[in-house]
Specification:
The protein is built from 14 helices and 13 strands. It has about 400 residues and is of the alpha/beta class. The strands form two sheets. Strands 3-2-1-4-5-6-7 form a seven-stranded parallel beta sheet, sandwiched between helices. A six-stranded parallel beta sheet has the order 10-9-8-11-12-13, sandwiched between helices. β1, α1 and β2 form a beta-alpha-beta unit. It is globular. The relative contact order is 0.11.
Length: about 400
């Protein structure tokens, strides 16, 4: 069977520039290569780092790259925008799809998988007659989506990362039979306390006596980082409770006039001796930093579909403080996580949960064991197998 994968048009595959979706694509491609399943061609934006990635040497997986950042491509994109105007997505993404389809329409694929951009299907359907699969990582398809019914009808199968996302799709058709939930997976060999390297706490500003609460992910409003910092401000009388923030720091390339960034800086000043920003950390180094923590805080204040940061913290045996939003409750259990409502008392509850785990080491130990046990459900090979099973059932 010949399968084409249309990626998002933003980050390259293999995931040489990171990206949760791109890492998940790498996982099922590696599984395909290992088990010699299908002839798969991936359509991705170009990045020179892919030349040195071993995945591109696969005999089963093939990679077609579209350079969207060269001078010629930038001129063509502008012309594309002038001629076609505003389409469904940003004109740079629409240009990527058009270029990919020039190759795709000549290949005779049996199945085309669209990664997280279901409205690609408008152009795909015009170009080729093949089975279409959406792999939805976000709530990009529900009854509020522009042209929702048409986009829904184009699909033969819709693979979602959580029941939460499936239920969003079912607002279009309550009798839906297309949706299949396939939970994300991670590399449990990499995210393991046994395989990770010990980092000297003193080198990044902590002591061995400190109780470290870890946040990892994008630093934006939706991830609840401001509320987490505000919760720490409540805990001023507990100087041993420290905060480690892994991700793009607000001291990086950000708009100085961004009101959220300004508020984050101001709030951080009240606990600046108890907070460490690492900035960007390579994905391969993440387990080493997670190992530093006593507790993981993932305080999303939006309907997070199925964040892999939860799975990573769980696999490292961390007790988890998180929220009852989106697909997060599907990732954890009451044995290994404290699930909070994001109501008007959220910040106080967040502070109380941190203090509770700080003061009760036996509870942390039990939650840690529960995290390790639950993490076994989210192995990357299980994810990849279920992904291909869902395609086979079309």
């Amino acid at each position: 069977m010949k399968v084409a994968i249309l990626t998002s048009g933003i980050l390259p595959v293999p995931a040489v520039q990171g990206g949760a979706v791109e890492n998940l694509i790498d996982f099922y491609l590696a599984y395909n290569d290992k088990h010699n399943l299908y002839d798969i061609t991936v359509y991705s934006v170009w990045n020179p780092k892919v030349l040195y990635h071993p995945a591109t040497k696969s005999k089963k997986n093939h990679y077609i790259y579209i350079n969207t950042n060269s001078l010629v491509a930038k001129i063509r994109k502008k012309i594309h925008h002038l001629l076609k105007g505003d389409e469904y997505y940003h004109y740079s993404i629409e240009y990527f799809v058009d270029q990919a389809l020039k190759h795709i329409r000549k290949q005779g694929y049996d199945i085309l998988v669209i990664e997280n951009r279901p409205a690609y299907a408008f152009k795909v359907r015009k170009a080729i007659n093949t089975k279409i699969v959406y792999h939805l990582h976000n709530s990009k398809l529900d009854n509020h989506t522009l042209y929702a019914k048409e986009i829904y009808e184009f699909a033969n199968r819709i693979i979602t990362v959580s029941n939460f996302i499936s239920n969003c799709v079912k607002t279009i058709d309550p009798n839906d039979t297309k949706c299949v939930t396939v939970y994300n997976g991670i590399d449990l060999n990499s995210f393991s306390a046994q395989s990770s390297t010990i980092i000297d706490r003193n080198k990044i500003g902590f002591t061995t006596e400190d109780f470290i609460v870890l946040f990892s992910g994008r630093i934006n409003k939706e991830k609840g980082i401001l509320e987490l910092i505000e919760a720490f401000s409540i805990l001023k009388q507990y100087p041993r409770i420290k905060l480690l923030i892994i991700g793009s720091s607000f001291y990086g390339k950000t708009n100085k006039d961004d009101t959220f960034i300004t508020a984050l800086k101001e709030k951080s000043q009240t606990i600046n001796n108890r907070i460490v920003f690492t900035g960007f950390i390579a994905y391969s180094d993440m387990p080493n930093y997670l190992k530093l923590a006593n507790v993981a805080a993932i305080p999303s204040v939006w309907d997070d579909p199925f964040p892999t940061t939860v799975l990573e913290a769980q696999a490292m045996g961390l007790p988890i403080i998180t929220t009852r939003r989106g697909g997060i409750p599907e990732e954890v259990s009451h044995e290994n996580a404290i699930l909070l409502e994001t109501d008007e008392h959220f910040i106080d509850k967040l502070a109380d949960a941190i203090l509770d785990l700080y003061q009760h080491p036996e509870k942390r130990k039990a939650m840690s064991q529960a995290s390790l046990e639950r993490s076994k459900l989210f192995d990357k090979d299980r994810y990849a197998k279920e992904f291909f099973d869902a395609i086979e059932t079309i």
